[in-house]
Amino acid sequence: MSIKSLIEYFVNPKDKLHPDNYRKGKFFIVSTFIFFLFAFAGEFYVLLSDIPKEDVLSAAIGNGILCAFVIATFFIYKNFGKRILLVNIITIMGYMSNIGTYDFSGGIYSSDLATGIVICSWIFLVADKVSGIFWFAVTFCTILFFYFAEINGWKDFRADSVNQGAEYYVFNFAFSAFFLGIIIILHEANKDRYLKELVLSKSEVENKSKELEAQKEDIISSINYAKRIQYAVLPHEETIYRSIPLSFILYKPKDIVSGDYFWFHEIDKDNYIIVCADCTGHGVPGAFMTVIGSSLLNQIVIDNKITQPSKILSELDKLINMTLKQQKEHEHYVQDGMDLALLKVNKSTKEFIFTSAKRPAILIRDKQLQEFKGSKFTLGGMVSGEKNFEEIKMNYKEDDVLYMFTDGFTDQFGGPKGKKYSIKQLRENLLSVHKLQVNDQKTQLDNLIVNWQAQLEQVDDILLMGIKF
User: Which candidate, 45, 36, 38, 173, places its Cα nearest to that of 114?
Assistant: First the structure.
C-alpha cells in the first residue's frame, strides 16, 4: 500500500465529503505521524540522556503514553471523526511538558516554547480557528508567566537551561524547524492546488456561461419568432377598430408570447363576434393553447357557420377535448383548457348576447355598473358531465361601455402593501374612466396597472378589452 493510499485510508469518510475538511484530515494524519516519530525518538533521548533518574521515569511514561495515544488517534479518527477534539487532546498532552519546562527545562530560556508556538500554527491548519486562537492565548500566557517568574527570581532558569545540554536545544529546534517546514510546504501545496482548481473552475464557469448565453439567445430568438406567429394568428387590432371604432384592447404578455388571446369575426355589416380568452399557463405553453383556440374558433364560426354564442362554446369545449385527447383512457393526456368570454353584437337591433366560460364582463350604463358572472365551467380539461353555457341577452344604449378581461389585471401584485389589484379596485377604476375617449381609457388603465406593479414582476398575461356602444 502506498503512502498516499495509506493516508486516504485513515481519513474519516465524512470529512472526505467537504473539501476543506478533507484537506485538514489528510494533513492531520501526516502531521500526527510526525508527532509519533519525534515522540518515539524522544523516548530514546530520555532513556539515554544524563537527566536525573527520578525525572527519567516520568518523562519516559509521558512520551510512551503520547506515542500510544497518537497510534490510537489514527483509528479513532477513521471510525468516529472527532478530529478537532483529538487535536486538542494531543495539544493538552504536549503542553504537559510546560510543567517540566518550569521545573527543570529553563522556563523563559527553554526551547520548548518554540515548539509550542509551532504547534499553535499546526492547530489552525488541522482543527479550527477557535482552537488555534485558544492555544495561542495559552502559549502567550505561559511565556508571560515565565517572564514574571524570571524577573522576580522565582526560579534559576539560566542554570536549568544550561543543565539541559546542547542536544536538548538541537532536538527541540530541529523538531520545530522540521515541523514548521512541513506546515509551510503543505500550506503552499494546498494553496497552489486551490489556485489551479480556481483557475480551472473559472474557465469552466466562463465556458458554461458562454454556452448558456448562446442557448438563451437561441431560445429568445425562437420565442420572438413564435411571437410573430402568434400575432399573425391573432386578428389585427386595426381590423377590429374598423368594425368597432369605439373600442380598445390592452394586451400585455408576461413572457414575450401570451396565454391570453382575443378573437374577432365580422359575420356581416351589422353582426360581429368578439372573444376575450385566458388559456392555461402563460409563455410558450399558453401560446400553443391560444393558437389552438383561435384555429378552433375559425373552424366553428367561419367554416361551420355556427354563430349562436352558447353553441360556439359547447362546440369549442368538445373540439378542445378532441384536439388535446382529453379522454381518461389515453395514457398521456393534457388537462389544459381555457376560460373565455364571448360577445355577439347586432348593431342594427342594438342588441348583444354575452356568454362565458368562467370569465366575467362589466357593463356600465348611466354611471351604474352591472357585472355578468358567466358560467362556472371552463373549456376543455378533464371535467366530466354536461356543461351549460348560459346566454345573457339585452339591448344596449348609446354610451354604454362593456369591458371583458382576463385575471392577469386583477391578480397583479403591487401597491404599498404588495397585494393583488383585486376585482373591486378594477370596478372602481372602470367607473372612473368609462366616460373618457377609448384611447384615453386604455392609456389610463395601462398607467394604473404599471404604477400599481411598480418594481414587482408581472405575474400573468394581461388582456382587457373595452367597447363603447
Answer: 173
What are the residues facing 465 on neighbouring strands?
A: 249, 404
Please name which of 34, 47, 13 lies closest in space to residue 119, comparing C-alpha atoms.
Answer: 34
How many C-beta atoms lie closer than 10 Å to residue 217's C-beta? 10
CATH number of the domain at 234-468, please?
A: 3.60.40.10
DSSP label of 384? -
Q: Is residue 304 helix, strand or coil?
A: coil
Domain map (residue ranges) of the chain: 3-204, 234-468
> How many CA atoms lie within 13 Å of 36's alpha carbon, on the beta-carbon side?
14
Distance CA 239, CA 20 (A): 68
H or E element in which residue 262 lies:
strand 260-266
Tell me the C-alpha distance between 334 and 315, whole Å. 18
Q: Report the alpha-carbon distance of residue 40 to residue 43 in Å, rounded.
A: 5
Query: What are the grid coordinates assigned to 357, written together?
Result: 366560460
DSSP summary character for residue 357: E
Angle at 170 between CA 166 and CA 175, to 5 degrees: 155
For residues 112 and 162, give the distance between their C-alpha atoms in angstroms, rounded to a whole number: 14
Q: What is the pLDDT along the chain (469 residues), one digit of tens a residue?
A: 677 788 888 888 888 888 778 888 888 888 888 777 777 776 666 666 655 555 566 666 766 777 788 888 888 988 998 889 988 888 887 777 667 777 777 788 888 888 888 888 888 888 888 999 999 999 899 889 988 988 888 888 877 777 776 777 777 787 788 878 877 777 677 666 767 777 777 788 888 888 888 888 888 888 888 788 888 888 888 889 999 999 999 999 888 888 889 999 999 989 999 999 988 866 787 888 888 888 999 999 999 999 999 999 999 988 888 887 766 555 555 667 889 999 999 999 999 999 999 899 999 998 899 999 888 888 887 666 678 889 999 999 998 999 999 988 999 998 888 889 989 999 999 999 999 999 999 999 999 999 999 889 888 889 999 999 9
Q: Measuring CA to CA, how many Å separate 304 from each of 40, 297, 307, 325, 412?
A: 100, 10, 9, 21, 38
Could you tell me which residues come within 8 angstroms of residue 280 by beta carbon, excluding any fewer than 6 positions away? 259, 286, 289, 335, 336, 337, 338, 381
CA atoms within 13 A on the CB side of 86: 24
| Residue 378 three-state SS | coil
Read off the amino acid at residue 375. Answer: S
Q: List beta partners, residue 263.
A: 275
